[in-house]
């Protein structure tokens, strides 16, 4: 459920009509709903209440929406953060997320990032390789510290999602293969500087089916038994994120409640504290990308609806062939079939071909729905278009939570060397 609804024929975010935001901030602009973020956070937390032997840590996957105001909303809901870079760690700390609720994932943590995270005394490093584990142990020991850590396992399951967002197959770069996990765990657990207290997985994103997760959790359960039989003390298991969200009207995905019930069934005998790293399921349907139609151009078959948002603002369709519902802000009941495209000089800048949608004329406002996750965060300035603005709505109030960065400001950071002047 989200808080983007029609009232009096006009699409609102909570109590704010979207044309008001377009007038004040301009388009394109991402619009997030605080009430929706809070609701999703509460539904997810409620679904996992009672899972594990202690209250679970829910660490929001910052990469899905790193906006500081969004992080602050979730911090106030008691969420921690799953970060994958020093930059994301800085954001989580800036949003007052307590360091002990921060988990650091990622295959390429640099020495500088590891040092920064050690200085901040974060809650858990998710180690993705034997080599990283050795380096982390050394850096911690050199400082007289002990890093809390889990070993990320690659369970070799097919998450059944898009290849580019699948992370748990044997040939993906993430984690240590299950077949080597016990061996790597034994080596790393013996190192000074590391408190290797558990295992972690994350098999992919936009999962439409619980079965691959269940298979992966079963493998992790088996591994925990093996590790304990080898004399290791396992107190923590991190089950990652990945739960999908509906991108099309009428699409039905596993609910947080169904996910929670499966988690509890699969982990009932594990006797560990659980961590979760949801991103999309919290933020996806809490945001829309508000855009204005620049021009309607006749086509050979369907007309081209040229909007002022482009693949640099919302990359998912170009990157993954992803579907985003597109709706008029003030529909008049008529419909059309159109190719919805942005202004960028690349055919990849296509949001939809032959889409049945509301009727639009130049100047009309529309929204791409379900744009709250992996939206603004993937923006670029391609075609010197600047960076898109972001707005957070709370009841009848709204605030700009990320300024539009104009193309001119980006150009200001560039220099022509003397020898070219
Ligand atoms: C991306 C990512 C997540 C979040 O995935 P969602 O599909 O957005 O829930 C969680 N954990 C890790 C390690 C990730 O890389």
Task: Draw up the topology in text.
Blueprint: E1 4-7, E2 10-13, E3 16-17, H1 18-25, E4 29-33, H2 34-48, E5 57-61, H3 68-75, E6 80-83, H4 86-94, E7 102-104, H5 111-119, E8 124-127, H6 130-142, E9 147-154, E10 176-177, H7 178-189, E11 194-200, H8 211-229, E12 236-238, H9 256-267, E13 273-276, H10 280-283, E14 287-297, E15 304-307, H11 316-320, E16 326-328, E17 335-341, E18 350-358, E19 365-368, E20 389-394, E21 397-402, H12 407-412
Parallel strand pairs: 4-20, 5-6, 5-13, 6-7, 7-8, 8-9, 9-10, 9-11, 11-12, 12-13, 15-17
Antiparallel strand pairs: 1-2, 2-3, 4-14, 14-15, 14-19, 16-19, 17-18, 20-21
Helix pairs in contact: 2-9, 5-6, 6-7, 7-8, 8-9
Pyridoxal-5'-phosphate (PLP) is lined by residues 61, 63-64, 82, 84, 105, 202, 205, 240-242, 277-281, 373.
- Straight-line N-to-C gap: 57 Å
Q: What is the CA-atom radius of gyration, in angstroms?
A: 23 Å
**CATH uppermost class of the largest domain:** Alpha Beta
Number of helical segments? 12
The CATH superfamily of the largest domain is Alanine racemase
The CATH architecture assignment of the largest domain turns out to be: Alpha-Beta Barrel
In total, how many domains does the architecture comprise? 2
Mean of all residue-level pLDDT scores: 97
Ligand inventory reads: pyridoxal-5'-phosphate
Please identify the structural class as seen in this structure: alpha/beta
Q: What is the third-level CATH name, the topology of the largest domain? A: TIM Barrel
Uncertain segments of ≥5 residues (pLDDT<50)? Answer: none
Q: Fraction of residues in helices?
A: 25-40%
């Amino acid at each position: 459920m989200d808080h983007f609804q029609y009232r009096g024929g006009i699409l609102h975010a909570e109590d704010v009509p979207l044309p008001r935001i377009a007038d004040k901030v301009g388009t394109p602009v991402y619009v997030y709903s605080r009430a929706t973020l809070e609701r999703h956070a509460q539904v997810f937390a409620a679904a996992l209440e009672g899972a594990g032997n202690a209250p679970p840590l829910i660490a929001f996957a910052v990469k899905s929406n790193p906006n500081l105001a969004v992080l602050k909303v979730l911090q106030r809901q008691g969420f921690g953060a799953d970060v994958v870079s020093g930059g994301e760690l800085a954001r989580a700390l800036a949003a007052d997320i307590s360091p002990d609720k921060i988990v650091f994932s990622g295959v390429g943590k640099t020495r500088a990032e590891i040092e920064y995270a050690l200085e901040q005394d974060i809650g858990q490093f998710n180690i993705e390789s034997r080599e990283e584990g050795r380096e982390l142990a050394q850096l911690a020991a050199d400082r007289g510290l002990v890093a809390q850590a889990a070993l990320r396992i690659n369970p070799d399951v097919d998450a059944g999602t898009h290849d580019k967002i699948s992370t748990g197959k044997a040939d993906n770069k993430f984690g240590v293969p299950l077949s080597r996990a016990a061996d790597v765990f034994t080596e790393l657990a013996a190192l000074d500087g590391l408190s290797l207290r558990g295992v972690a997985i994350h098999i992919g994103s936009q999962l439409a089916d619980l079965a691959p997760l269940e298979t992966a959790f079963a493998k992790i359960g088996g591994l925990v038994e093996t590790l304990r039989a080898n004399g290791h003390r396992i107190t923590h298991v991190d089950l990652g994120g990945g739960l999908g969200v509906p991108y099309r009207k009428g699409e039905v995905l596993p609910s947080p409640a169904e996910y929670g019930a499966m988690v509890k069934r699969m982990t009932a005998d594990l006797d560990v504290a659980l961590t979760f790293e949801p991103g999309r399921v919290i933020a996806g349907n809490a945001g829309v990308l508000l855009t204005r139609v620049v021009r309607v151009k006749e086509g050979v078959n369907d007309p081209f609806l040229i909007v002022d948002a482009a693949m640099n603002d919302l990359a998912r369709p170009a990157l993954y062939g992803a579907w985003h519902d597109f709706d008029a802000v003030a529909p008049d009941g008529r419909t059309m079939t159109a190719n919805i495209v942005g202004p960028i000089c690349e055919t990849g800048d296509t949001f939809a071909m032959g889409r049945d949608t509301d009727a639009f004329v130049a100047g009309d406002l529309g929204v791409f729905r379900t744009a709250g996750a992996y939206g603004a965060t993937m923006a670029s300035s391609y075609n010197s278009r600047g960076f898109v603005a972001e707005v957070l709505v709370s009841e009848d109030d709204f605030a700009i939570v990320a300024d539009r960065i104009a193309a001119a400001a980006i150009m200001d950071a560039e220099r022509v060397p003397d020898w070219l002047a």
